[in-house]
Amino acid sequence: MSDAITAVPTIPVLDTPGTPGQEPAAHGLGTSLPQAEARAKTEGTFPYASDLWAEGLLWAAILRSPHPHARIVSVDTSAATAMAGVRAVVTAADVPGAATYGRRVADRPVFAADLVRHHGEAIAAVAADHPDTARLAAAAIAVEYEVLDPVTDPEKAFAAEALHPDGNLIRHIPLRFGDPDVTGEIVVEGLYRIGRQDPAPIGAEAGLAVPRPDGGVELYTASTDPHTDRDLAAACFGLPPEQVKLVVTGVPGATGDREDPGFQIPLGLLALRTGCPVKLTATREESFLGHAHRHPTLLRYRHHADAEGRLVKVEAQILLDAGAYADSSSESLAAAVAFACGPYVVPHAFVEGWAVRTNNPPSGHVRGEGAMQVCAAYEAQMDKLAAKLGVDPAELRMRNVMSTGDILPTGQTVTCPAPVAELLAAVRDFPLPALPKDTPEGEWLLPGGPEGAGEPGAVRRGVGYALGMVHMLGAEGTDEVSTATVRVQDGVATVICSAVDTGSGFSTLARQIVQDTLGIDEVHVAPVDTDQPPAGPAAHGRHTWVSGGAVERAAKMVRTQLLQPLAHQFGMSTELLQITDGKITSYDGVLSTTVTEAMDGKELWATAQCRPHPTEPLDEAGQGDAFVGLAFCAIRAVVDVDIELGAVRVVEMAVAQDVGRVLNPAQLATRIEAGVTQGVGAALTENLRTARGLVRHPDFTGYALPTSLDAPDIRIVKLVEERDVVAPFGAKAASAIPVVTSPAAVASAVRAATGRPVNRLPIRPQAAVAVPNS
Fold first, then answer.
1. Whose CA is closest to 90, among 108, 104, 75?
2. Helix 665-684 to helix 736-754 angle, to the nearest 10 degrees?
3. Is 74 exposed, middle or buried (0-12, 13-18, 19+ CB in 10 A)?
4. According to the lineage, what is the superkingdom (predicted)?
């Protein structure tokens, strides 16, 4: 039946270079090769999951709980089933396989059966002939609830009645490093709170399920981890994985897990029940209620330093609110605890970290999870320490920065390049933007906007700094492996790899790798589905490293197949031959031919894997080599603050980043700018607010995303290209680290402008109002 599906996207290929009268297009690694799908996306013709259609299509709707915590007394679906046009209604009783699922811990029910644990939890799903009928039928399902008091304060979760059979504590990490009795001459303390940031995907979360003749089902969604999602769905359907196929549709960007399995599994159940294709396009409210958010976090810190400001000891307590289910909270906590001291040399560190269940909305993987929250806290502590010592904040940081060979508080040696001092110096020394004092007031953009209510005399400028770090790839023993195939025929190369391009540009990178290795301009990247070998999730820069490494190895194997006959013919090794601009030449010039001539109509292909060196879980003292690699960033923020109204305008963000190697300059700049903008949103506006577990205003009127008018001038002042020798290309993760660092930099700048402590993100207006005589 899948043949009836239309608008399933393939990756368009740009016109091949060499048009008469034009210079050949740049290609290969290190060039700004444009994305293959850029034109289609710009013109609005690129098909996403919400564009899919199939013959005999039914529409799905999901009934969600209006309560954050309740006991389900009864569910009556008779009224919905009796409605004209309704084809199926499914509840927890209709799940033929595993009743729960989860990418890391299988603790989340497909449909709530006995208890509701968060606002918006799925209770039932409906398939009908028309989307309006499906929604009306879902609303007609009668559910009797016994409303219970929700546990919404994570600090109270320890003593509260268990919300889940697994208990309320998901993980506890006590990190012990050094001598607990050491103290410093200077001590500063702080309590910090980080809000609930939503990944807020602009494209609608949608999917299509199509039953198969063999009793299985095909799922068409914008999954970022297709094989894991396939396996989760198959377990819930009671089917072997080979009877479930997941096809990745066009992904309209992702800063976390793009499609929650909670959308995909009901779709498949309805398709299997009805024998018809079933489609679901989530409303904006459903997206806010259903998918995972950044962990709200409570952090307590105490920093000890000597009289010169050099860190002696850091003590911290970190509490992550996981919401109702575990999801990726264990991994997020590990990152938060491991990076609790930041990219600074700390000889003694003692950190307690917890992740707990509550009746708040679910938390999970969002770009920079764990690292972003602690960065805001430890950088606030560095500002406090600088103020207490009377030292310039940038100078204080410079006295403590980490470098290659230093040891993390987890006991792991930093073996990768760690040019933190170079990054900090770059943003510190970059010229500051001009002050508006010589500009007519009518041309000055006040913090309140072009028509801001404030007065220029109340505006103060602040400059702040932040240093951030993230880990690359999975951690704590995660088996990171990816498989890729490169096939060449008739002068055209095809890459087959199930790495999902979420906007990170992997499909473009794969083309560049093959162009660089084989000298072939026209490279296609095949659409992704689970019939291909797994490549793992799109997170932590892993596809650049692991999947890119697999593509490179496969391309090099094809290169050897191509060159071996020529090398044998001319009595030389393949290492003495090179491929440049589609031509094969020998070191001595004796051999010169084209790749097309050497192929001679043959088809060459190879499959390869890439697997980085293994890591290990943190032990009972928080010690262990848990990370494959690290990336660093320094940001200087310049803000204007109306100290009477508390309005903040970010004037400029100067960024210096440790990138290892620039593979695509334009693409890299775009990813850094997007990450900084997302971080500015976390700093100033983005907070999914709840009241006793109920999500308030789950829409884009109540959840304020930064727009183009809110985006500051972003100056990429330095990209340090010190290659990581264990990475296939030496490149490092690029997207997450500016998200991690920029909120802390904005908060630091607001502190400098107002004299206020700024201990909460996002920054509320009352926190940006200056104290008297400040």
1. 75
2. 50
3. exposed
4. Bacteria
For residue 265, what are its two tokens? 């599994």
Q: What is the C-alpha radius of gyration for the chain, rounded to an integer number of angstroms?
A: 27
What percentage of residues in the chain have a pLDDT greater than 90?
A: 64
Q: Which pTM value belongs to this model?
A: 0.92
Give the pLDDT confidence score for residue 287 in this predicted structure: 86
Across 265-302, b (16+ Cβ under 10 Å) vs e yields bbbbbbbbbbebbbbbbbebebbbbbbbbbbbbbbebb
Any bridge partners for residue 70, and if so which? 116, 147
User: Which amino acid appears at position 223 of this protein?
Assistant: S
* Contact in structure between 486 and 554 (CB atoms under 8 Å): yes
Q: What is d(CA 685, CA 671) in angstroms, rounded to the nearest whole number?
A: 21
pLDDT at 463 over 60: yes
Number of alpha carbons in the 13 Å side-chain half-sphere of residue 150: 25
CA distances from 610 to 615, 631, 730 (A): 15, 20, 14
CA–CA gap between residue 313 and residue 486 (Å, rounded)? 51
Is residue 222 within 8 Å of 239, Cβ to Cβ?
no
SS3 of residue 219 by DSSP: strand
Q: Are strands 583-586 and 206-211 parallel, antiparallel or unpaired?
A: unpaired
Inter-CA distances, 731 with 109, 544, 546, Å: 39, 8, 11
Spell out where 513-670 has E strands.
Answer: 523-525, 577-580, 583-586, 592-594, 603-610, 627-642, 648-658
- Reported in sequence order, the residue ranges of 367-481 that DSSP labels E, i.e. its strands, are 459-475
CB 688, CB 198: distance < 8 Å? yes
Tokens of 735: 């997207």
SS3 440: coil
The pLDDT tens digits of the residues spanning 509-522 come to 999 999 988 888 88
Which bin fits 504, alpha (ψ -120 to 50), beta or left (φ > 0)? alpha
List pLDDT tens digits, range 571-618. Answer: 888 888 888 777 888 877 778 888 888 887 789 999 999 988 889 999
The pLDDT confidence band at residue 367, using thresholds 50, 70 and 90, is: confident
What would the two tokens of residue 352 be? 């307690």
Instruction: Give me the residue label for tokens 């409605």.
Output: 83
